[in-house]
Amino acid sequence: MVNVHYRSDANKCQFNFQIWEVLPNNTSNLVSRANAMERNITPNTIRQLTFWGTSHSHIFKAGNKIRVILTNLDNISNDYFMRTNPYVLPSLVRASNTIYMNSANPTYIQLPLIGYIPNDIISNTSIVPKNYF
Questions:
Q1: Which residues in 44-82 are b (16+ Cβ under 10 Å) and which e?
Q2: Which of 35, 67, 95, 115 has the most Cβ atoms closer than 10 angstroms to its Cβ?
Q3: In the predicted model, is pLDDT for residue 40 greater than 90?
Q4: CB 111: neighbour CB atoms within 10 A?
Q5: Sequence spans of domains, the chain
Q6: What is the pTM for the complete model shown?
Q7: 3-state DSSP assignment of residue 81
C-alpha cells in the first residue's frame, strides 16, 4: 500500500512507484510496482492518495537493500516486452508536483511482512528468541 500527500499545479497527477531489491554488488531486480492516477483534481491543493500496488510474493535476502523509485512514467530499460507503461497509461501532462513527507502529511510505502517465522522457531512456544538468522 502507498500513501501519498501531494500538491500538483495541474488537474491530473500520476504516481508510479517501483520497488527494487539491490544486491551487495549494486545490481538490482524489480520486485513490484504501485501505480495510480488522479484526474479532475483542483490544482495547487494538498491531497492525500492511498492505493495498492501489484500483488507479488518476494523474499528479500538478508544483507540486500530495498530501493524505491518514484517516476511519472512506469518503464524500465531492460523490460523489452512491457517497457511502455504496462499498468497505467501515462497522462503526459506537464506539471510540477510536490510530495509532502512530514508528521502532518505522511507519505510512505507499506511492505507487509506476512506469516514469516524462521524455520528453527517453534510458533507455539512462549520462549522469545534472542536473534533471528
A1: eeeeebeeebeeeeeeeeeeeeeeeeeebebebeeeeee
A2: 35
A3: yes
A4: 14
A5: 2-109
A6: 0.71
A7: coil
